[in-house]
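Side project, low priority. Logging it here so it doesn't get lost.
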Amino acid sequence: MTSSSTVACRHARDQMLRILVVRNDKLGDFMLAWPALACLKATVPAARISVLVPSYTAPLARLCPWVDEVIIDPGTGKAAKQALLDRLRRERFSAMLTLYSTPRIGWLGWRAGIPCRVAPATKWAQLFYNHRVIQRRSRSAKPEYLYNIELAEALLTALGHTLKPRPSPPFWPLKPDSIEAQREEIASELDLDASRPWLFLHAGSGGSAVNLSTAQYAKLAAAIDSRLTATGIQAHWVLTAGPGEEQTALSLSNTLSTAGLHAAVLPSRQRLEDFALALAAADLFIAGSTGPLHIAGCLNRPTAGFYPARRSATSLRWQTCNEEACRLAFSPPEGAGESEMSAIDLETAAATISDLVRRRAAETCAS
């Protein structure tokens, strides 16, 4: 960073700190930005944190405890671009943190006169930023949420702040009575026994990730259920679905019920935020690398994720941000095709998942 950039950032530090954080792509990507947002608030609690997000993720952005203001990205187009530029100028931001850089956003931050602008040093969009961080994310050497935290720390350092210890999960903390309210509502809707483990399974992918087939999920669930039953644990299976995936969830629920499992589909939630809050009721959430999996991770629910072996989509890169003890991940073995999900050993996965469920159940009983 040049000396003039340093002066600009230090001047921004001395003003009423207003930080714009940009993560304007998919739901899972945005959920993995929450640790970085928590990092900013932990170090500078008085800072006003705004996020620039698409309308789709805005409802969850409004629920994020680390966000003070939500700005909806109006998208491309000359009029939309000018409207967003005018908004950024009016807000008089001290700094901008772009977690995923594009030329359009970089240009807007520069034209808006935001004095301290931080982004990954990638592609030519980095030319619009006066503080660039070399990360080489394409190597997938770290979790995405950790890359985001490192960018947040780079911004704070550029502003002259002493870093505080990194926040720990949950990155979406809910009060116990909020979680209990979700469990009571779902128990009433589906006639579930609250004393049994509730295993949520999301078979859809939202078109964003390679996933297990419905048949594989049915085989996995049956294997988990069999192991739990053998140890005296009767689980409830709750099938969740995103928009357009309801039929998949219903078909899978019918298959599991026919096989003797206690399975039901979570009733549709009209709003994304209501669906997200319902996941807080899960004792375990099973899914591919999708937005719902990362919502569950932010809530610090136990997760079992299924990932392709593709370098840009590995289980390390797209690791959930819950506690390590709550996190399981499965991928095709070495030598299999990068998207050959059929190569995953479902019996081994079922044994590992059922062990986690038993351990969590034992901890609940002990407490």
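Brief comment: The first strand starts at residue 18 and ends at 22.
Revisit when time allows.
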